[in-house]
Amino acid sequence: MKGCYALVYRRQNEKNSSIPDVPEHLLGDIASKLEEEFIAQTSATTELTLRRKNTVEDYHKRLTSLFSRLQVKKGEEFMKNPEDVVFLPTELFSSILMQEFSTMVESNEEAESKMSFPLCVHNQISLESVRNGLIKAVNKQAALRFLEIYDVEYAELKTGFVSA
Prior knowledge:
Shape: rod-shaped
Helix content: 40-55%
Strand content: 5-15%
Number of domains: 2
Organism: Gongylonema pulchrum
Protein name: Retrotransposon gag protein
Order of helices and strands: HHEHHEHE
Number of helices: 5
Strand order of the largest sheet: 2-1-3
């Protein structure tokens, strides 16, 4: 009954011209009941819409903050401390964003899958993986927090540090 109104029609012809009009006091009652129902449903819809909007904004703020902390913004500083940079599969980010979206729209599907990225024969990250966008360099502390928040188990985090 969302956004509706009522119209009462009566055909006027010779057969039904003797049908009396609906008394005014009944019309007023019907109109007021319809108006009450309309207002109640409209306010409930508005409340639900506002709640959903707030939920979406909360998710957006949280994810924006989290992904902002993951960024390696000051590359020169991280070049001096390569152990502060780790590499994560970009597929992990996509998977987590899909999980967040699913949670937000209440479908509650668990996206559990194993993810990995190739290493060269020296057990180092291949340059092709970075160039092809399979992995991304991120801030290590933020990455550890990110993995903890989403309960992601990991075997080993590869850093930018290469031992001689």
